[in-house]
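Dear Dr. K.,

Following up on our conversation at the group meeting, I've run the structure prediction for Transcriptional regulator from Mycobacteroides saopaulense. I'm pasting the input sequence below exactly as I used it, so you can double-check it against your construct before we proceed with anything downstream. Let me know if the numbering doesn't match what you have in your notebook.
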Amino acid sequence: MATTRSTARGSAVRASLASVRDAHDLFVAGRVDGSYLESISLPRLVTESWQRSLATGVDPDRGPGEAAAAKRLTELRSSHPLAGALPVIRRLLVDHATDSGALVGVAAADGALLWVEGDAGAGRKAATMNFVPGADWSEQAVGTNAPGTALALDREVQIRGSEHFCRLVRPWSCTAVPLHDPLTGVPLGSLDLTGGAAVASAQTLALVRATAVAVEHFIALNYPSQDHRHGDTEPRLTVLGADRPVLYRADGQRAHRLSGRHAEILALLLRHPEGLSADHLAMLLDENDLDVVTIRAEMSRLRRIVGGELIGSRPYRLLEQVGSDMGDVFAALRAGDVAGAMDSYSGQLLPRSAAPAIGRLRLELSASLRGAVLAGGDLHLLRRWLDLPEARDDRAGWQALREHPSAGTVMRSEARGHLIALDSDLA
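The predicted structure tokens came back this morning:
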């Protein structure tokens, strides 16, 4: 009787997997859409991931790209915050996987596999689909897979067999949990267990989740944050100059180092206190319009990092008063305090950002400050402006310095030499 029930359950599982494979084949061929996938009770997480994978051009018949060269992989590993936590991962997870046909993968925040350890036989089989250190297993590169999709959604994920987007990965199942810096909330990577069907169980998820918690606790105890603590009574964002953008919380106890995208979003929310819809935000961040699903996933990650109490939704907006170095410059200029504006201006707004709305805001801030300095006629402020990298080619500014009545002989000579060099470059 027990054998009969077991056989029946096995047949049901195989039928389910077969229907998922059929649905995948129809979907990637363009013969069905997302509504059909929902009708066959495919998990929404998988349905949405397949749609993202197809939209970004992932080839379902190819695996990840070539692994990183040994030298580059060594550099990635040695500089990564998770390197010190490897003994914890090995003790709690790898030791259990060694003789169980499973592999433990540790990925960086961009989806690159840093370490893959566990059962030797499973490792040889996994190498045929390039599940090896240095390979890119981000969702954008491989499509739906646990370590990459966990990073894309910033949540724990289980992917079973045919739920993978790439056909090459169908023989495997996997469970992954994202890892974060426990003090700043910044994503560090993901922890993954890959193997047979048993790997995608509730017990496995509990084990990987517990290991992730232990890793984050280890990092908190052994690598305390060196961030400067800001003492203001309101959250404060720094987005000017070449340093990495930071959000200082009002309690003075947390400082969140931000990715470029998260800094862009916060800067735009500061300039739009009325709030922004996902569609509007996508248009401001990319002229080709980012996918709304991508925006929502990015906002979910940002809210997890800085706290849901700071950012509201529908529309996305700041729920607290947030100060910023950018705001200080604008406020000083509105008050006619050009010296104060120069004191607050440590460089261009998010200079590495290519987002069109940030580019316009960067130009507005820089041009407003430049105009105020040139119009004011203060020699000291003019000199400070011209010392900024963005003013090296400011011909009108150097001309104003050369002709300034209070400029001494040395300063005039410097301005004259700079103008000659500029004219020579233009010629």
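Two things stood out to me. DSSP finds 18 helices and eleven strands in the chain. The chain has a mean pLDDT of 86.

Best regards,
J.T.
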